[in-house]
Design a protein that fits this description.
Length: 129
């Protein structure tokens, strides 16, 4: 009887630990990941205009890389706006070499399209050299 109780408790502990490890995975490091998609602003707009639900499935929570013109710098939120359509939030401090009006290549995690603000959202971004 005692042996069955120990086996049952051990089994529940193993299952519990497995479930916790599955649910609470380690954080991703977008900066070191390879980009799933290399896209342009026009491609994103075209795909979301034709079928936004499929585009969301394709890009949601994926690492993307894109190059566009910096149109606004928001130092308070560590973010920039690119091509007036993409809000990019940096993981760490805003890089010093960002200049409004210049092209910049970034890599980050695609969050989705904000219909209210009519802009794409990307976070955990870093500058690609």
């Amino acid at each position: 009887m005692r042996k069955k109780i120990l086996i049952t408790i051990s089994l529940f502990i193993i299952i519990g630990i497995s479930v916790c490890l599955y649910i609470y995975k380690g954080h991703r490091n977008i900066e070191t990941e390879t980009a799933d998609y290399i896209v342009t602003v026009n491609e994103l707009e075209r795909e979301f205009a034709s079928n936004d639900s499929l585009a969301n499935i394709k890009y949601q929570d994926k690492t993307i890389e894109l190059s566009a013109r910096v149109t606004n710098i928001d130092t308070a939120s560590n973010g920039i706006v690119m091509s007036e359509k993409i809000f990019v939030k940096f993981k760490k401090r805003l890089p010093q070499n960002i200049i409004s009006g210049k092209n910049l290549k970034i890599k980050g995690r695609f969050l989705g399209y904000d219909e209210l603000l009519q802009e794409f959202k990307i976070d955990q971004s870093s500058v690609v050299h």
